[in-house]
Amino acid sequence: MTHLVIQSGKRLTGLCRVPGDKSISHRAVMFAAIADGVSIVRNFLDGGDCRATIGVMRGLGVQVEERSPTELAIHGRGLDGLQEPTDFLNCVNSGTTIRLMSGLLAGQRFTSFLTGTPQIRRRPMGRIVKPLRQMGAVIVGRQDGNYAPLGLGASTLRGLEYTLPVASAQVKSCLLLAGMYAHGLTVIRQPGPARDHTERMLAAMGAPIAVYGDTIHSERPSAPLAPLHIDVPGDISSAAFLLVAGAVVPDSRITIAGVGVNPTRTGIITALQEMGAAITFSNQRIQSGEPVADLTVATSDLHGATFGGEQIVTMIDELPVLAVAATQAKGRTVIRDAGELRVKETDRIASTVTELRKMGARIEPTDDGFIVEGPTRLMGGPVESQGDHRLAMATTVAALIAHGPTTVYGAEVTADSFPGFESTLQALGASLEIHGTPAESIHA
Ligand code: S3P
Prior knowledge:
The structure is a single chain. Helices cover 30% and strands 29% of the residues. By secondary structure, it is α/β, with parallel strands linked by helices. It has two domains: 2-19 and 233-436, Enolpyruvate transferase domain (UDP-n-acetylglucosamine1-carboxyvinyl-transferase, Chain, Alpha-beta prism), CATH 3.65.10; 22-218, Enolpyruvate transferase domain (UDP-n-acetylglucosamine1-carboxyvinyl-transferase, Chain), CATH 3.65.10. The strands form seven sheets. Strands 24-25-1-26 form a four-stranded mixed beta sheet, with helices on one face. A hairpin with a 2-residue loop joins strand 4 (63-68) and strand 5. Helix 1 (22-33) packs parallel to helix 3 (95-106) and helix 3 (95-106) packs parallel to helix 7 (169-179). The radius of gyration is 21 Å and the shape is globular. Mean pLDDT is 97; it is low at 439-444. Shikimate-3-phosphate (S3P) binds at residues 23, 96, 168-170, 173, 195, 316-317, 340.
């Protein structure tokens, strides 16, 4: 177990990078596995969640060569080349792994079982199991398929027309993948702009994925999928911690190079800018089919704002750290329409409120979000990650502006999505000590 001791009072300056995007890294391994030929993935996220996806694909007979921790060569087995696994496939703590893999495995000619940590076994799976069953999938799981472990029997799938009840890229991607193994057309309608990496990547590989506004079509490819050659952009969800840190720590200026700025992911930038944060884009370009930019942030006077509706899905993972920014903003910040926070790695409404209150934040939970009053002088002290990587990093950012030292317990989980988080902050000038073994994340 690791804990971090953070002292405030140091300005943050300099140029840094963040590791590869988590969503794109997962998808790269999965999609490369069903392509024909060898895919090369550079700047792969060498974090706990994406390593779980590598483990699952190996369990299905896929050769994944690690040329370095961030460069993979994946030997595709073709659309119908996955092998029946001889044991449970361990998705560890990764929601993206279990939900997307369920879609990929539901229409195979073999049986497979997906499981993971106690935390992942508490997260809702009914949202994928219900529509997959409508496609003809044979799936069993605890509480009528609502919870993992999930068992997926050999099935023949048929296309489905389905409107997602919540804007979820995991559910959308699961069904688009199942649609590639189904007879007939699968038509998915989404209620909001959930991240579209699946659509972009599969279409680039030659899959018949077509996007018409909020409606996406998927069907069985008539030709083999082309292998991927991809340089994964930096993860905007990781950059978000540095953007907030740069905006709230006095006298700071940070540039984060090579961040993915896909419009389905940039809600956090728009939100911080609406609150008065000085964030600028430079060197904008397209990298492996995704928009990328260097982002510069400088210390800013923030003011409260209200966020809800379609913007929420474009920054869902960034809301805990947005709450930290809100504690430093003048006036009231309201987050609404974010009930999905309750089914993330933790109930992120409850866990964010609990941990930030320990530091003196004036934050109230609501059914679907929270309300923060600011500005508040935060107080250092002991806080817990609660086994949630984004909470560990959000509280670390809060600690950078707190009065007195803060200890973040259970901080090994930062490596789930942002290996090198601590050393990146240190290099920018933060006073941060790591105690204990920064090992692979260990979950309750
Ligand atoms: C993800 C989608 C989001 C996000 C998660 C990654 C993805 O989840 O919170 O971290 O890669 O598709 P939902 O689809 O459940 O909103």
